[in-house]
């Protein structure tokens, strides 16, 4: 009897470690071999679904249109397609099993809100060298510090055969977006009276040393995301700049600096993370809501709910082709310009960890199985009601190649407001791949130089 109780206790402990995101050993060579057979090189199911509504992955979209030049507006590869179905509050019950709670809440709150569902296309891809590194990561990459840090990972999907919520969220944080990029953007906040305001107009420069093609695990210093954001407008914000350096080492954590024009100096900014209101969005969302989720994992316990089929924004190239005046509706984005598709997603639930605090006590993320990008995020308040609905807009970029989410946003259902961030439409160039900058570029000294120009 005691032996049975002991085995049950050990089993419960093992399950608890899995779902809390504690350190888990890498998978076996036999399991990793599935990346060459039944799974894609990124770890998704290669086959389509039984209904035929999700196709098999056939290598993704990797050929740029003839005449494409870096920084050009990317065409909609499926512009001729028509919606298979339009879903709103009137017919949402028929499709409830494939709608997130947040999307259903938006439909209930706004009668004009709908999603147009198009044929699904699995456009996700990476370069061959990234596939090769992903296979290596399968047997060498591990979490430590209770899932908050990584070791043994480089240049590919960290966990192509994920077992824990923390592993899946690391896949999201390190999702492939190329080695380095530059993007002009605007950020809009639409208030409860339906009026759009441009909160920021600026430049994002981003690089990921984790993804350097010519790098290696031995040379990797730990930074996976370096971001330099310079604001050009509106006039009262012009010159304000932010530098973020995110690392796989939780002990080091996010390093952040801010250049303040009025003070003409750069200051260390340790609060630029978690549930601090994001100054770039005039406080309309939290720093860790950027790109679906960003920053440290330590405030939450992360649990894998499972995998399911869900309607998510996907191949949304048409969004960047739209004028902002057409795209920004009074209560939500204009559904005419948002493409939705049926895809398999990983569902991960986050609840505030014991001894920690966060303004959002519970979150649920829906990660596209092919890219691990958090396409949607549902967030509840302390009373258990849907409060915030996050979204990203994955876009087919065959020139990278990849299906990459740079634009993102948030609906605040209680306040009746919403945000569209990183919208590059109507700009001189959009998401442009660039050669990696040198190691002195993402420094506080250069931040001050950029902000004072």
TrEMBL record:
Residues 1-25 form the signal peptide. The keyword Manganese does not apply. The keyword tRNA processing does not apply. InterPro entries: DUF1329. Keywords: Signal. It comes from the Bacteria. Coiled coil: none annotated. This is DUF1329 domain-containing protein. It comes from Duganella radicis.
């Amino acid at each position: 009897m005691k032996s049975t109780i002991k085995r049950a206790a050990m089993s419960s402990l093992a399950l608890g470690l899995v779902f809390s995101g504690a350190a888990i050993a890498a998978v076996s060579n036999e399991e990793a071999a599935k990346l060459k057979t039944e799974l894609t090189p990124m770890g998704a199911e290669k086959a389509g679904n039984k209904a035929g509504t999700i196709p098999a992955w056939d290598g993704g979209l990797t050929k740029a249109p003839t005449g494409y030049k870096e920084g050009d507006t990317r065409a909609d590869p499926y512009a001729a397609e028509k919606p298979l179905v339009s879903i709103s509050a009137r017919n949402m019950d028929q499709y409830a099993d494939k709608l997130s709670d947040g999307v259903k809440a938006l439909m209930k709150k706004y009668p004009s809100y709908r999603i147009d569902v198009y044929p699904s296309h699995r456009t996700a891809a990476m370069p061959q060298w990234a596939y090769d590194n992903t296979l290596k990561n399968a047997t060498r990459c591990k979490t430590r510090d209770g899932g908050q840090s990584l070791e043994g990972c480089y240049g590919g999907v960290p966990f192509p055969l994920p077992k824990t919520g923390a592993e899946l969220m690391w896949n999201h944080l390190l999702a492939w977006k190329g080695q380095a990029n530059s993007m002009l953007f605007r950020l809009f906040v639409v208030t409860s009276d339906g009026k759009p305001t441009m909160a920021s107009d600026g430049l994002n420069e981003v690089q990921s040393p984790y993804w350097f093609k010519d790098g290696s695990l031995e040379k990797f210093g730990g930074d996976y995301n370096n971001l330099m954001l310079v604001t050009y407008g509106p006039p009262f914000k012009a010159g304000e700049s932010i530098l973020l350096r995110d690392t796989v080492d939780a002990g080091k954590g996010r390093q952040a600096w801010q250049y303040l024009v009025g003070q003409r100096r750069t200051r260390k900014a340790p609060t630029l993370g978690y549930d601090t209101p994001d100054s770039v969005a005039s406080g309309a969302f939290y720093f860790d809501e950027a790109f679906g989720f960003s920053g440290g994992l330590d405030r939450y316990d992360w649990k894998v709910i499972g995998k399911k089929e869900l309607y998510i924004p996907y191949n949304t190239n048409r969004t960047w082709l739209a004028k902002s005046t057409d795209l920004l509706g009074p209560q939500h984005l204009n559904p005419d310009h948002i493409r939705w598709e049926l895809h398999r997603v990983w569902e991960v639930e986050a609840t505030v960890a014991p001894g920690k605090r966060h303004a959002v006590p519970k979150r649920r993320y829906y990660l596209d199985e092919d890219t691990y990008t958090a396409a949607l995020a549902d967030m509840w308040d302390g009373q258990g009601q849907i409060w915030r609905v996050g979204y990203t807009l994955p876009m087919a970029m065959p020139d990278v190649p990849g299906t990459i989410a740079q634009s993102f946003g948030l609906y605040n259902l209680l306040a009746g407001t919403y945000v569209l961030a990183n919208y590059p439409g109507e700009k001189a160039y959009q998401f442009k791949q660039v050669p990696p900058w040198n190691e002195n570029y993402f420094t506080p000294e250069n931040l001050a130089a950029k902000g004072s120009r």
